[in-house]
Design a protein that fits this description.
Number of domains: 1
Number of helices: 7
Radius of gyration: 20 Å
Helix content: 25-40%
Strand order of the largest sheet: 2-3-11-8-13-6-5-4
CATH architecture: Sandwich
Shape: globular
CATH class: Mainly Beta
Strand content: 15-25%
Mean pLDDT: 88
CATH topology: Jelly Rolls
Oligomer: single chain
Amino acid sequence: MTAATKYAERSIPRISLADFSNRIDEVTTQIVHAAETDGFFSLTDTGISIDEIEAIFRTSESFFDLPDEVKATVPFTHKNVGWEKKSQIRPSTGFPDQKESYQLQFGANMADKWISPAHLPSFQSDAKAFMHKAQSLSEKLMLCFARGLGFPDDYFIKAHDISRPDCQSVLRLLHYFAVDRSAGPLSESFYRAGAHADWDLLTLLFQRPGQSGLEICPGREAVTSFGMGDTWTKIDFAPGDIVCNIGDLLMSWSDDRFKSTFHRVKAPSEEGDYFGPRYSIAFFNQPCTDCEIQGPKGKYPRVTGAEFTKAAMERNFAALKAKKEEMGREQQAVGASAQVGVVS
């Protein structure tokens, strides 16, 4: 049975991008403050309409409604593209997330990874159109972050140039499976998405109203820290708002000034939780492989985009290995205790 979650009320900044070109300084101040304190904020007046968001959700659902054998024609690869189902294991839990996802990119990594038009005729064009909208919005935020850190306005935009074949930014379509509320308490191994921090620059998260579950747990002071607290805050949002969180890349690039916050999608288990199928869409701003990454104060060694991603993955796998070893020791201890009980 899952333990009761400890919650704390936190105010998540809500920032309007209306009249952006004339309000850049004001918006930059608000975004930088949110990045320095919460690591999370929501955006309104983004230029992406509620209808456009709902349209991409329908596109996403059309993919996930396909039989697994059809989705398996575009399998997930180490290049961070393709479809996976219950294969992502978080170091925080040691168990697979109860979801499926389809990861899309702009560049060469998508060769042979678009679902065939024979199954979904307009899927690729619809997805690409939305990806470009998400990129355009991301570039406004990149400009603000660049100014906040004293870099040229186009500094982060060049590092995430989607016209380049080595662009790594990802649109991830997500489908969390429904939970049978009548089946009783969930297993301790059931997580919709275990606690984690993103390792990109910035994540834009699109959600459907009424499909709750996203929670945050602030507190990291250094990007090299894997630890976290245990007091969570539920994230609510207005229809059409886009939730944003700082990733490990921007935390490192800012010399730990901006905070990459742990977050999760809670397994429904308490009154008020959403038990139905949950859909969300995340746009991860990930750097081109050869861009150079180092904060203005040089706190961390200079690395390339490829090196940063590789190190982040290795850190994640090391933490997962440690978690599995810990779980193994716990199982052995339980087994030994049971054996003693039988003997006595």
